[in-house]
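User: Can you help me understand a structure? I only have the sequence.
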Amino acid sequence: MENASLDGTLAAMRRDFDLTFALAPAVERAATESLLAIRVREDCYALRVAEIGGLFQGRRIVPLPTIVGGLLGLVGFRGQLVPVYDLGALMGYPPATEPPRWLTLLHQAEPVAIAFDTFDTQLRVERGQISQLSDLSGQWPAQRLSSLAGAVRTDMLRPIVNLPAIAAEIVQRLGSAYPNTASPNPLQVRSNAS
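Assistant: Let's start by predicting it. Here is the structure, written out as tokens:
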């Protein structure tokens, strides 16, 4: 009888021990956030890793004749053509002197990518290091505030790009460029024939 009791106690201790390792990462993830430190033109920003579907460098963008502001062209991802938009143009920057080298896919129902100039590093920060958007007013141009979702303070203050707002800006630009066209997938590139 003692062996059965000892075996039960050991099994319970083993489960408790294993459970402590299973729970630790979940607590750590809740207290921290992963960000990509990037630059648009020469300005520093951050992107939430949870809002993107990958980071890519040096993909060939096939230009398109278009009236949609910020649309750079198409790029192939996983056997699918995806429209690529210049993040700087979507945020109100003047046109880039060189094509952006870095791309990221947005988490959207329809695939869409944004391009930016420079990837600096990946950041893992405490949630307490992330400030609200109201903390940026007066420090950042008003026309860009609608594209931001707070800021992260590391060695510098990096505004966090509001990627859902960027996706909404793309939809709005498509609607403005093609006002009489109903599209079930507003993030898809529309041809001039539509």
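Now, to help you interpret it: The chain is about 25% helix and 35% strand. The first strand starts at residue 32 and ends at 40. Let me know which part you'd like to focus on.
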